[in-house]
Design a protein that fits this description.
Layout (H helix, E strand, L loop, with lengths): L1 H75 L3 H7 L5 H124 L16 H12 L6 H94 L10 H9 L10
InterPro entries: Odf2-rel
Family: Belongs to the ODF2 family.
GO cellular component, one term: centrosome
Length: 372
């Protein structure tokens, strides 16, 4: 029983350690939740940048509308260069200027067509980016909900550990109480055994005294033969027996034997009950250990899955930020090129080469090539 008590105490200590580990995992889950909230804020920033991209798209559409108006003006003869070509009586220098302006207008129209195609590509890329941002936001919300459920499960596990701890404490107190009762019963059994031994000695001494009385010896001389270990009560009982050798000891011996045997039977039943109770307590402790191990395994698996999902979300966010930077540079390049084209209207410019415009459209502000 003492070994079982020590084992139960060790199990209680292990439960304390596992509860501390669960608290540490709960702190890690809170840190992960804070990280997800930070990622959610970054997604909100991405949405704000997406709204800026929408504004940029509106500006690009406005530029396209102006380009179409310019092209319609050139086709209907309302462009200033066309009016100059239609005026009669122009000198050769004016004719050369008008021809150069018409050539520049034609090259500018080709550049605008190319820029329009590039703008369509950028618009599609912006739509994809917006869809990815929405999907990322949904994934983040799902991760947040998963973390909330995991935190709730951990809190439930914490409550279960607290309940298990209280039950373990109650079982420990009950076990200690039963251990004390067992010790008391063992002491009583030992006392009854001693009384039984003394009774047998008294019986033997009584028979010997009766035999000596029959032979004519004095019973008082037999008192020195009594075992010095006998108690005072046993000696008094022996004296009474020796003083009254004619009394019948049969009924007294039977009643005494029954009085000793009845407590012995009660002690044995009590010990058997204690052993059954101890076995039940051991079964309860084993069951609680299995339940605790299962809860810990499920929590660890769920936390590992959430950490993996958070890492994937972090990688996706970084890629989205990089792609957003690329889109901003691309739109900046488009706006600068469109502004330069608008400033050429009504002035004399050297001929614009279409490949040069393509290079301008495919390069960012910083001069790096844009990979389509």
């Amino acid at each position: 029983m003492k070994r079982a008590a020590r084992a139960h105490k060790r199990r209680a200590d292990r439960l304390e350690g596992q509860l501390s580990g669960t608290m540490a995992r709960l702190a890690d889950s809170n840190a992960s939740l804070n990280h997800v909230q930070t990622e959610l804020e970054s997604v909100n920033e991405t949405r704000a940048q997406t709204s800026q991209l929408k504004q940029l798209k509106e500006k690009v559409e406005e530029l396209e509308r102006k380009c179409r108006e310019n092209q319609m003006g050139m086709s209907t003869g309302m462009f200033p260069g066309a009016q100059m070509m239609m005026q009669p009586g122009m000198n050769p220098w004016q004719m050369g200027q008008a021809q150069q302006l018409a050539t520049n207008s034609h090259n500018t129209g080709g550049a605008f067509d190319y820029l329009k195609e590039e703008n369509e590509k950028l618009r599609e890329a912006a739509m994809k980016h917006e869809n990815k941002s929405l999907a990322m936001e949904r994934d983040t919300n799902e991760l947040k909900a998963s973390l909330s459920s995991c935190e709730k499960a951990i809190m439930e596990q914490k409550a279960e550990c607290a309940d298990e701890r209280s039950r373990s404490k109650v079982l420990q107190e009950r076990y200690e109480k039963l251990e004390k009762e067992k010790e008391e019963l063992q002491n009583q059994l030992e006392k009854h055994k001693n009384i039984e031994n003394q009774r047998q000695r008294i019986q033997q001494a009584s028979l010997l005294a009766a035999t000596l009385g029959d032979t004519g010896h004095e019973p008082a001389n037999f008192a020195g033969l009594i075992d010095p270990v006998m108690s005072t009560d046993a000696q008094l009982q022996l004296g009474k027996t020796l003083d009254q050798p004619t009394l019948s000891l049969g009924g007294t011996q039977l009643s005494y034997t029954g009085g000793v045997m009845r407590p012995n039977d009660q002690n044995k039943r009590r010990i058997n009950e204690l052993e059954v109770t101890t076995a039940e307590l051991r079964k309860d402790v084993s069951k609680m250990r299995k339940e605790r191990a299962e809860l810990e395994r499920r929590s660890n698996a769920r936390l590992s899955e959430l950490r993996l999902q958070l890492n994937q979300a972090d990688v996706t966010n970084r890629s989205l930020h990089s792609y957003l930077t690329f889109l901003k540079r691309s739109y900046t390049s488009v706006f600068q090129t469109s502004a330069n084209v608008n400033s050429m209207q009504g002035e004399t410019f050297p001929p614009i080469d279409v490949p040069t415009a393509r290079v301008m459209a495919t390069r960012g502000v910083d001069g790096h090539l844009i990979d389509h």
